[in-house]
Design goal:
- The chain is mostly helical.
- The chain has one domain.
- It has 18 helices and two strands.
- Strand 1 and strand 2 form a beta hairpin.
- The radius of gyration is 22 Å and the shape is globular.
Length: about 425
């Protein structure tokens, strides 16, 4: 309800004539798609952000990105904390579920910490980008400050919205623009519980929880593997990395590996990449970032849990042990449920896009995974899709931001308590 309300308000604001350049207001589909993409911190667009939306419209988009990144329930809890100095038990439970808090007592501190960390990271990126825009690219102070602020918010919240028609292609070999944005994306994708634990025990890995270790190691492995994979395949592609210097190719490879963590910026033409590169990026986008962060996907922890379950089964062992701790069996079912629902959503979405548009599987799958994982990367077909096809992507963005298991639980409303057990039987597997 919270996310739906935010999308509705954002849609209405973007339909106002003041939000659009030129005469008249934006159409309903353009406003709905953009609002959903902003609140769900995706970054897919059907219109050109810097030319179609006015300054007011861009501010609305930035605020929706910030709101979506923090989480509607966290934002509501913050407002309640400031105004009433008190949170109800229901609000604290809702917020604990949203930020993966370990208990009710730490929700107040966690909400404050989330907001503080967000503002600190965004301020740091703003400070790094501002002089580069102002001095090197000779923007006026006002324009430099606005571009630095917008991209700082968009990057930390893993949104991928940019104030340039070609996204960030003009900065493909500029490390002073690309690297601060990458750092913000990685931090936002780690998840707030991980960031807060690292803040307390950065030099004490033994005190890290299983969640923190899985996210840290998973992030490092996926970033390195993604960089190597994308750089190797695109190294000699004349339409993407082939025209860059060796250093520029490495930077572009790392940059786009980071973007698959569900950020959505691009510094080369994604539509000109090889089909094999798209396939690898599909997998990286589907996995996504860490839980309780600004990224999407099935989450690094879900993928890691399934990996360790597979290893345990292949070894013929009983319990799944990770980093010296035994994994709860309830987590097994949750991980499998999340992945199966996600796979079903992606396959259904890709099939619908192919039926509605006639696009081939490669492009339809890429757009679908990008929408569901709230990434925002595109092969260039999104803007030209029919209203029905764009509505499919809107639904996928909304579903992907809420999370398959959360949405499934909301539909089920409650868990049934079974007072009996049936006899066991084991079917043949494989």
């Amino acid at each position: 309800m919270g996310f739906g309300s935010a999308v509705a308000v954002g849609t209405l604001l973007l339909m106002l004539p003041v939000s659009k350049t030129g005469p008249g207001g934006a159409g309903f589909m353009e406003a709905l798609f953009t609002a959903t993409s902003a609140v769900c911190v995706t970054g897919l667009t059907v219109v050109d952000t810097p030319t179609y939306w006015s300054g007011f419209g861009q501010v609305v988009i930035m605020l929706m990105i910030q709101l979506g990144g923090l989480g509607i329930m966290i934002f509501a809890a913050l407002i309640g904390l400031v105004l009433a100095r008190k949170l109800t038990v229901r609000s604290r439970l809702n917020t604990a579920a949203e930020v993966k808090a370990s208990g009710l007592d730490d929700v107040r501190g966690m909400v404050r910490g989330i907001v503080l960390i967000s503002l600190i990271v965004e301020a740091a990126v703003f400070v790094l980008l501002l002089p580069r825009f102002a001095l090197h690219y000779e923007y006026g102070l006002g324009k430099a400050a606005w571009h630095a602020l917008f991209h700082a918010v968009s990057s930390f919240n893993n949104a991928g919205f940019a104030l340039y028609t070609d996204n960030l292609i003009g900065f493909v070999e500029d490390p002073f623009i690309c690297l601060p944005i990458c750092a913000a994306i990685i931090l936002g994708g780690l998840g707030f519980p991980v960031i807060m634990q690292l803040r307390k025990h950065l030099r004490q890995p033994l005190h890290w929880s299983m969640n923190t270790k899985l996210v840290i190691w998973g992030t490092v492995i996926l970033l390195v593997a993604g960089t190597a994979y994308i750089t190797a395949l695109e190294w000699n592609n004349p339409d993407t990395f082939g025209k860059l210097s060796p250093w520029g190719r490495l930077l572009a490879g790392f940059f786009h590996s980071v973007q698959t963590r569900t950020a959505g910026f691009n510094s080369v033409d994604i539509g000109a990449m090889r089909d094999e590169t798209w396939l690898g990026m599909d997998i990286l986008m589907f996995i996504g970032a860490g839980p309780a962060g600004t990224g999407g996907g099935i989450k690094v922890t879900t993928f890691a849990v399934l990996f360790f379950i597979m290893v345990t089964e292949l070894r013929g062992e009983g319990a799944v042990n990770i980093f010296g701790k035994r994994l709860s069996r309830a987590v097994h079912r949750q991980a499998i449920t999340v992945v199966l629902i996600a796979v079903a959503a992606v396959i259904a979405g890709a099939a619908l896009l192919m039926i509605l548009t006639g696009e081939n599987l490669d492009r339809a799958m890429f757009e679908t995974v990008s929408a569901f994982a709230t990434v925002g990367l595109s092969t260039g077909i999104t803007a030209g899709l029919s209203d029905a096809a764009q509505l499919v992507l809107v639904i996928l963005m909304f579903l992907g931001r809420l999370g398959p298991l959360t949405l499934g639980s909301a539909i089920a409303l409650r868990q049934r308590r079974i007072l009996y057990e049936l006899p066991k039987e084991r079917p043949a597997i494989g």
